[in-house]
Amino acid sequence: MTMLESRCTQSLKCLEFTHNTNLPPQYFSNFLGHFKNLTKLNVCASMVDDCSFIIIGENCSKLVELNAASTWLTNNGLKGMSVDDVIIPGLPTIYRLPNLVLIDVSDTRVTPEGLSLFLVCHPNLVKLEHRENFHSFRLAKIQNSCNSTYALRYLSSIDVYLSPDDYEYALDHCPRLEGVTLTCAGLTNENLYKLMTVKSLTQLHLGNKNSQSFNFFEGVAPVLAEVGVTLKKLVLEDFTEVDVDFIGEKCPMLEHLALSGILTYAPMGNNYKPHFFTKLTSLELWNKIGQNHELAVSDNVLIQLLFRAPLTYLLLQRVGSLTDDLFSMILGMNPLLTLRNVVIDYCHNVSGKIFWMLLEHPNNLSVMRSWHNKGTTETDKNAIKSVIKEENLLLYWEWYPYNEYEELLDAGQIRLESDEEEYE
User: 400-415 pLDDT, tens per residue?
Assistant: First the structure.
């Protein structure tokens, strides 16, 4: 590090110093300020604190991209990268890091208040990565910046209540928006209709994690009917009902589909549509413990999703309708030759046979995981492991046995003994 500091201070433009928990925070404050020509800095998950980020703001004026995720950054450090502490009346305010376009402050102690100041000082930001960056416009809204527009491409609100006014203001002032994540409380079906005006939308994540604010048919479906043609990624979680056929019809370019905690799917017949999901490369189906898993994902739903999809990634969790025979039938329709990564989790109606079928097909498998499936035994695990070794396959095979205690623990239906003692 001393050699780097002594020889590269003028020439170094890109520095990645990630996941370092050995050096103390004060080391970074002395070290990072020497590299004044940096354009890209990545200190993700390292012990970098506010003092170091203030030093970065004072010295690294050419910085274009900064990854500060999972560091000790707070609003104070974000302010130090935005503006000088001393503002002289009559003179224009000098903003720090004027060339910054991308910044990741996820999993830090930064709050919406800090994001608001940072965005006002850096209106050219394309990426402000934070789970609550939908709230980054509070200060701009107070300043009545009605005519200002921002270059942000992705907006998200996960847990913090989002008022309809703040939501609409953000959409109105981000004309280049490409991705939206909304799982917070505060919005209704009618509020979702504002998404119809976002014509460049390619990623959409909607969920009722905190409350049943909106539903599929009255809120999500009208939005998909308008903007679904441009969507490449769709994530829906915690809805009482979802219509897979409707998604397939309205989202022809969909590449990534994830459905989590869906209680029921709209009734489907045996008339499978071969023109649905023909671009789908990633499919995730997550069900929760206690659901009627056969009702949630029926045979027909699973067949329609996999009928023509050129999948590279497949994750199925608690899909009770999945059996060896059903999967064999699906492989007869679609051999999944492009499949690279598959995870079967808590699917108790399958056996080790399903993994042997995957091994026997001429696909591109590099990762195969069997997690907590009752029908997949340790004998299956060892046999597959032996074949991988004997055939010298470039395949990562992972197997975990079923454990009822762990399943109940994951579902929050029981507590660890240490938690119970603390509670008492």
Answer: 999 888 877 776 667 6
| Nearest Cα residue to 39 out of 95, 100, 82 | 100
User: Cβ neighbours of residue 217 under 8 Å, at least 6 residues apart?
Assistant: 241, 243
Residue 35: which residues within 8 A CB-CB, separation 6 or more? 8, 9, 12, 15, 59, 60
The pair phi, psi for residue 75, each rounded to 5°, is: -60, -30
Residues with Cβ within 8 Å of residue 227, at least 6 apart in sequence: 195, 196, 198, 199, 201, 204
Distance CA 399, CA 381 (A): 6
d(CA 78, CA 70): 14
pLDDT at 407: 78
Residue 412's pLDDT is 66
At residue 294, what are phi and psi to the nearest 5 degrees? -70, -35
223 is written with which tokens?
A: 């939005």
Domains along the chain with CATH numbers: 1-110 (3.80.10.10)
Task: Please name the residues in contact with 419: beta carbons below 8 A apart, sequence gap of 6 or more.
Answer: none
Task: Categorize the per-residue pLDDT at 423 as very low, low, confident or very high, splitting at 50, 70 and 90.
Answer: very low
What the block records as the tokens of 78 is 């974000």
pLDDT of 380 > 90? The answer is yes
Indicate if the pLDDT at residue 3 is higher than 80. yes
- The phi and psi torsions of 301 (rounded to 5 degrees) equal -65, -45
Q: Please report, as a single letter, which amino acid is at residue 393.
A: L
